[in-house]
Specification:
Elements (H helix, E strand, L loop, with lengths): L5 H15 L1 H34 L18 H4 L4
């Protein structure tokens, strides 16, 4: 094994339980579990939205209508020499 044997980890776990208490560690575990469930639900909802968009993409926007300002002016493009 490495430098940390099983007995080192048992002592660390015992110190953590003594410092934080078992009820606070239980609450922390429950909070972590709820956070992971929420994350997984959010990821699956996002995948559902992406698959729905791939199946039914939105229609393309209509082309812009030409206006008087956007038509080229041949007099303006002329270069004087």
């Amino acid at each position: 094994m490495g430098a940390w044997s099983i007995w080192h980890w048992v002592i660390v776990l015992l110190v953590v339980v003594l410092v934080f208490g078992s009820s606070k560690l239980g609450n922390l575990g429950g909070d972590l579990g709820r956070a992971l469930r929420g994350f997984k639900k959010g990821m699956s909802d996002d995948e559902d939205k992406n698959s729905q968009l791939r199946a039914d993409p939105p229609p393309p926007p209509p082309p812009p209508e030409p206006s008087a300002e956007s038509t080229p002016d041949p007099a303006r493009d002329r270069v004087e020499r």
